[in-house]
Amino acid sequence: MRRILKRRPSPAMAVSIVALVMATTGTAVATHERIFSSDIADGTIQSRDIGLDVIQKQDVGDNAFGSREVYDGAIGGIDIKTNDLTGADINEATVGAAGVVNPNGTLQAGARNATVRPLSGSVYCIAVTGITNTAGRPISLTIDRQNSSTSVPGDIQTSIEWDTQPDACNIASEYEVQTFRQVGNDVQANDEGFAFFVM
């Protein structure tokens, strides 16, 4: 019987076998080479190619993002660092309402975002631009002493009241304010000048 000779495969045969295995299994070889921006064509990487939280602050240049890159309403108070915004960043004319009302119900110059309807019984209905429901939106009031129709010596006092359940004004969209004059224990409705502020 003839014996089968056992021989080691030649180096060329070993390389051929390795190449054949890699070709049939689809195994990739890591190159360990860095990819630079010059290796990537413009517009080839999309948002779906980037994992969540992969891009960090240091990866974005200053002023790289503008208002065009942000959806309306996407940024809220939680996204803004405390004290980052100042008065210069805010158009104060768009924030709340304020004004001084004369005893006859007219607004003095400088009032913003509000209208006033005077009614009988020293009642004033204040409507604020952009507010269709006054619930949960308090109003701050103070008697305008310099613009008051009543002097305040001795036991004569003026007062002001905001009715959370309006009787004469629109209950949903208007603030109902009433001013009074008090002489001793006698309290009567009386037209008085006052200032208001709504946030």
Structure description:
With 199 residues, this protein is mainly beta. It has a domain at 95-198. 8% of the residues lie in helices and 25% in strands. It is built from one helix and eight strands. It has one helix spanning 11-25; strands spanning 97-101, 114-119, 123-128, 139-143, 156-163, 174-183, 186-189, 194-198. Strands 2, 3, 5, 6 and 7 form a five-stranded antiparallel sheet that branches. The chain has a three-stranded antiparallel sheet with strand order 1-8-4, with no helix packed on it. Strand 2 and strand 3 (123-128) form a beta hairpin. The longest helix is centred in the first third of the chain and has 15 residues, at 11-25. It is rod-shaped, with a radius of gyration of 38 Å. It starts with 10 loop residues before the first helix and ends with a strand. The mean pLDDT is 79.
Let me know the largest β-sheet.
5 strands, antiparallel
| SSE pattern, N- to C-terminal | HEEEEEEEE
The helix content is under 10%
Terminus-to-terminus distance: 107 Å
Count of distinct strands: 8
Category by helix and strand content: mainly beta
Assess the beta-strand content as a share of residues. Answer: 15-25%
Q: How would you describe the shape? A: rod-shaped
Name the assembly state: single chain
The whole-number mean of residue pLDDT values reads: 79
Q: Compute the gyration radius: what is it?
A: 38 Å
Unreliable runs: none
Q: Helix count, per DSSP?
A: 1
